[in-house]
C-alpha cells in the first residue's frame, strides 16, 4: 500500500499554560510529542488510548483545527501546516470531522436542513435552495434518516439520530478524509452498533479514508484496517489490526487488551492489571513514558526513550524489550504475570 | 430457606400528575440473598438507577411516588418514617456513585469526609476516626494513606477518587453496597483496577453488592446474578452464566450480539433497529415490541409475564419464553 493519502511527520503540540493568578508560570503540557504516521487511501486507522494520551489533539492537528507546535502534515503533495488561511479553507472540503458529543456539536436553534446544508453553501455546491434541499434529502437517506426530518431541530432527535446528522454533514462534500473523535462513546450499546455499521458502509461506498479515535480496543475491532495505540502523546504501537490484536508487542497494548471486560463470565484470561494512574501530560516521565506502570520495566527504560521501530512485518513498536525479544502474546502475559508476582500483588488487600 | 437480605416487590415509581402519571418503574421484582452479587444491566432510561435510588429512598417526594415493597432484612423500608432512613444509609446500605468528583465535597479533606460517615454511625474519638479513615484508604490501595488524609478531592485522579468513594462506602461495613456505574467515568486500565478492588472488598467484608451498569462486560466480571431492565421493566433475570450463555429475551440476545468484542472476526456488528424508548413512554404490551425481530400481535397488547427458562433463569417474552400452558412456537429465523 503505497497509496498514502495523508501523513504526519514529527507532529507535536505543546499547550503552554499562561501564567496563573499569582503570576506563577504554569507547566507546559506536551499533548502530542513527535508523532509520525500515514493514512492510506480507503483505509481506516483506529487511534486508541486513554484520556490525556493526546489522541483527540492529534486528530485535530491533522485537520488544523488547532495549530501544531511543530511538524508537518502532508496531503496532496502539500504541507497543510504551511498553507495560508485561504488555501487551507479550500482544503477543508476534503477534510471533515465528526465530533464525540452529538448533543453539544449541533446548533440547537437551527434546522437539520440548515445544519447539513451549511458546508454546501460555503463551497457553493447546489446553485439554488431547492437543489440543496434535494442534496440534503439524499444525504439524510444515506445515513438512514427520513428526509422528512429536514425541517426539525436537533432537540427532537435521540443521540444516535444526532450522530447520524453529524455524519451526514461530514460526508456532504464528499471528503477524502474524515476524522471521527469517539463518535459512539456517548451512545447506548444497542445504538453504537448501528453507527459503527453505518460508518463502515459509508466508507465502503464512498471510499474516503478514516481516522477513528476511540478509548478502548473493543469498539474498533470491526472497523479498523490498522490500529495505533497512543500513550502520553506518543504512538507506542501501530500495525495491521490482526497483528495488534493477536500479537501485541507493547506491554501497554497488552494491558489495554486485557483490561477490556468481556461479556462472558467464563472468560478466563491472564489479566494484566496496571498499577498506578496515567501520569499527567504536564509531567511526562523521562525515558520510556510508560516505565512507571510497566510490568516488565528494566533500568534502560527509565533512562532511554525507545524509538518506534518496525518489527519487520509492518507492525511498529516503541519498547526496548519488545524489540529485543519479540514475544508472542502468551509469553508476554506470562512474563508480566511472573513480574507482578515478584513485586507482590496489587493493592493492599 | 433463609430470608433474603433484600426483597423488592412490585416496585413502581411514578412522576408527573396523578391523572396522567409517567411510570418510570413498572412492577420491579427481585430478591437478593446475603453475600451475593447482583448486576442490573440496561441502557439509558431503563430504570436501573431509579431502582437503586428507590431502594435508598432517595427519590424526591412528592414529585416522585414510590409504591410496592422494599424489604431489607425483613423490614419494609417504604414503611419507615423518613427520619429513620439516614440511620440505614451508610451503615446498612451504602452507595457508590458514578461521578466521584461531583459526589465528593470539594472543600472538605478526604480524611474528614470519610470520618464524617463514621461519626454519624459510630461514636469514637477524633483521633481514632482519623486512624480508621487511614486504615480504610490503605484497604482500597491508596498509597501513603496517612499522608493523603488532608488532601482534597481535586488533588486526586479519577481512579483514586473512586477509591476514596469506595473507602467511604465501606466505612461502616454495610451489608449491602449499591454501586451505580462505578467505573463508567474511568479509563479501561483504571476500570480494571477498581473492579478488582471491588471484588476484593466484597470477599473480605462478605458484603452483598448490587452493581448497576450499562456495560455487559463489567456485569459479567463482577455479578453472579443478572437483572436485565428495559424501559422501566425487568425483562430477564438469572444466574450470570445462564444469562450470558443462554440469553432468552430478544433484547438481551440483541444487546449481547451488538457488543463489540476483542476476539471475534465478524465483519459487521449485529444491530438492534430503532432507539431506546424513554421510561414511561410504553403504556401497553411488551416494551421491546417496536424493535423486536420476533414480535407478534399479542406482544403489542399484553406485557408477557416472567416465565422460567430454567431453575435460576426467567424471562418475559411471549415468543421465546411462552407460558407453559401454551404450545411453544417454533421460531423461524432465530436471532442467534
Automatic annotation (TrEMBL), chain A:
Alphabetical keyword list: ATP-binding, Nucleotide-binding, Transport
Molecular functions (GO terms): ATP binding; ATP hydrolysis activity
GO cellular component: plasma membrane
Domain ABC transporter: 6-257
Membrane topology, record value: Peripheral membrane protein
GO biological process: peptide transport; transmembrane transport
One Pfam family of this chain: ABC_tran
Main location: membrane
Subcellular location(s) per record: Cell inner membrane
Cited PANTHER family: D,D-DIPEPTIDE TRANSPORT ATP-BINDING PROTEIN DDPF-RELATED (PTHR43776:SF7), TRANSPORT ATP-BINDING PROTEIN (PTHR43776)
NCBIfam families listed in its UniProt record: oligo_HPY (TIGR01727), PRK11308.1 (NF008453)
Protein name (Swiss-Prot/TrEMBL): Peptide ABC transporter ATP-binding protein
Annotated organism of origin: Pelagibacterium lentulum
UniProtKB/TrEMBL annotation, chain B:
Subcellular locations according to the entry: Cell inner membrane
Pfam families cross-referenced by the UniProt entry: ABC_tran (PF00005), oligo_HPY (PF08352)
Superkingdom as given in the UniProt entry: Bacteria
Protein's membrane topology: Peripheral membrane protein
Start and end residues of each ABC transporter domain: 6-256
SMART domains: AAA (SM00382)
Biological processes per GO annotation: peptide transport; transmembrane transport
Keywords: ATP-binding, Cell inner membrane, Cell membrane, Membrane, Nucleotide-binding, Translocase, Transport
GO cellular component labels: plasma membrane
Entry's Gene Ontology molecular function annotations: ATP binding; ATP hydrolysis activity
Similarity comment: Belongs to the ABC transporter superfamily.
Protein name (record): ABC transporter ATP-binding protein
Amino acid at each position: 500500500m503505497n497509496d498514502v493519502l495523508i501523513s504526519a511527520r514529527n507532529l507535536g503540540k505543546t499547550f503552554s499554560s499562561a501564567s496563573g493568578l499569582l503570576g506563577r508560570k504554569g507547566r507546559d503540557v506536551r499533548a502530542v510529542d513527535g508523532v509520525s504516521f500515514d493514512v492510506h487511501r480507503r483505509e481506516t486507522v483506529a487511534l486508541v488510548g486513554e484520556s490525556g494520551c493526546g489522541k483527540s489533539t492529534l486528530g485535530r492537528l491533522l485537520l488544523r483545527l488547532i495549530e501544531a507546535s511543530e511538524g508537518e502534515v502532508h496531503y496532496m503533495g502539500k504541507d497543510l501546516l504551511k498553507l495560508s488561511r485561504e488555501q487551507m479553507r479550500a482544503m477543508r472540503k476534503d477534510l471533515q470531522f465528526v465530533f464525540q458529543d452529538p448533543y453539544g456539536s449541533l446548533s440547537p436553534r437551527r434546522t437539520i436542513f440548515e445544519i447539513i446544508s451549511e458546508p454546501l453553501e460555503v463551497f457553493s455546491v447546489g446553485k439554488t435552495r431547492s437543489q440543496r434541499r434535494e442534496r440534503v434529502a439524499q444525504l439524510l437517506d444515506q445515513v438512514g434518516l427520513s428526509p422528512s426530518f429536514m425541517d426539525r431541530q436537533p432537540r427532537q432527535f435521540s443521540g444516535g439520530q444526532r450522530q447520524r446528522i453529524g455524519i451526514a454533514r461530514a460526508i456532504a462534500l464528499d471528503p477524502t478524509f474524515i476524522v471521527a473523535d469517539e463518535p459512539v462513546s456517548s451512545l447506548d450499546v444497542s445504538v453504537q452498533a448501528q453507527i459503527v455499521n453505518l460508518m463502515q458502509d459509508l466508507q465502503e461506498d464512498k471510499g474516503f479514508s478514516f481516522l477513528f479515535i476511540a478509548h478502548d480496543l473493543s469498539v474498533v475491532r470491526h472497523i479498523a484496517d490498522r490500529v495505533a495505540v497512543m500513550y502520553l502523546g506518543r504512538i507506542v504501537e501501530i500495525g495491521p489490526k490482526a497483528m495488534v490484536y493477536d500479537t501485541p508487542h507493547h506491554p501497554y497494548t497488552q494491558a489495554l487488551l486485557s483490561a477490556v471486560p468481556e461479556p462472558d463470565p467464563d472468560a478466563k484470561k491472564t489479566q494484566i492489571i496496571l498499577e498506578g494512574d496515567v501520569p499527567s501530560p504536564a509531567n511526562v516521565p523521562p525515558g520510556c513514558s510508560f516505565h512507571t506502570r510497566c510490568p516488565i520495566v528494566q533500568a534502560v527504560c527509565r533512562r532511554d526513550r525507545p524509538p518506534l521501530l518496525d518489527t519487520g512485518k509492518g507492525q511498529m513498536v516503541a519498547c526496548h524489550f519488545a524489540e529485543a525479544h519479540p514475544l508472542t502474546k502468551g509469553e508476554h502475559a506470562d512474563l508480566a504475570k511472573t513480574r507482578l508476582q515478584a513485586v507482590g500483588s496489587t493493592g493492599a488487600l | 430457606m433463609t430470608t433474603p437480605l433484600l426483597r423488592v416487590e412490585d416496585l413502581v415509581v411514578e412522576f408527573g400528575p396523578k391523572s396522567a402519571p409517567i411510570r418510570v418503574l413498572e412492577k420491579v421484582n427481585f430478591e437478593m440473598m446475603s453475600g451475593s452479587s447482583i448486576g442490573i444491566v440496561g441502557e439509558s432510561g431503563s430504570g436501573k438507577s431509579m431502582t437503586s435510588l428507590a431502594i435508598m429512598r432517595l427519590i424526591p417526594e412528592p414529585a416522585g411516588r414510590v409504591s410496592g415493597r422494599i424489604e431489607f432484612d425483613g423490614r419494609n423500608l417504604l414503611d419507615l418514617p423518613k427520619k429513620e432512613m439516614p440511620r440505614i444509609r451508610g451503615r446498612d446500605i451504602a452507595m457508590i456513585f458514578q461521578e466521584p468528583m461531583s459526589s465528593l465535597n470539594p472543600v472538605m479533606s478526604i480524611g474528614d469526609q470519610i470520618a464524617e460517615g463514621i461519626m454519624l454511625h459510630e461514636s469514637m474519638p477524633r483521633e481514632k476516626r482519623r486512624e480508621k479513615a487511614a486504615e480504610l484508604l490503605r484497604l482500597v490501595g491508596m498509597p501513603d494513606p496517612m499522608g493523603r488524609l488532608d488532601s482534597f478531592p481535586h488533588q486526586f485522579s479519577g481512579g483514586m477518587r473512586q477509591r476514596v468513594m469506595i473507602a467511604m462506602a465501606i466505612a461502616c461495613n454495610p451489608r449491602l453496597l449499591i454501586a451505580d456505574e462505578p467505573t463508567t467515568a474511568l479509563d479501561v486500565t483504571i476500570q480494571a483496577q477498581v473492579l478488582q478492588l471491588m471484588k476484593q472488598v466484597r470477599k473480605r467484608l462478605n458484603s452483598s453488592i448490587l452493581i448497576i451498569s450499562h456495560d455487559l462486560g463489567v456485569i459479567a466480571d463482577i455479578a453472579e446474578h443478572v437483572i436485565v431492565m428495559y424501559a422501566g421493566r425487568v425483562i430477564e433475570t438469572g444466574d450470570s452464566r445462564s444469562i450470558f450463555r443462554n440469553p432468552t429475551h430478544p433484547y438481551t440476545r440483541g444487546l449481547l450480539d451488538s457488543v463489540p468484542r476483542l476476539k471475534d472476526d465478524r465483519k459487521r456488528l449485529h444491530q438492534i433497529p430503532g432507539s431506546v424508548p424513554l421510561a414511561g413512554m410504553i403504556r401497553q404490551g411488551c416494551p421491546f415490541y417496536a424493535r423486536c425481530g420476533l414480535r407478534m400481535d399479542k406482544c403489542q397488547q399484553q406485557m408477557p409475564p416472567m416465565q422460567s427458562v430454567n431453575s435460576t433463569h426467567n424471562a418475559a417474552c411471549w415468543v421465546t419464553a411462552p407460558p407453559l400452558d401454551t404450545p411453544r412456537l417454533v421460531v423461524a429465523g432465530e436471532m442467534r
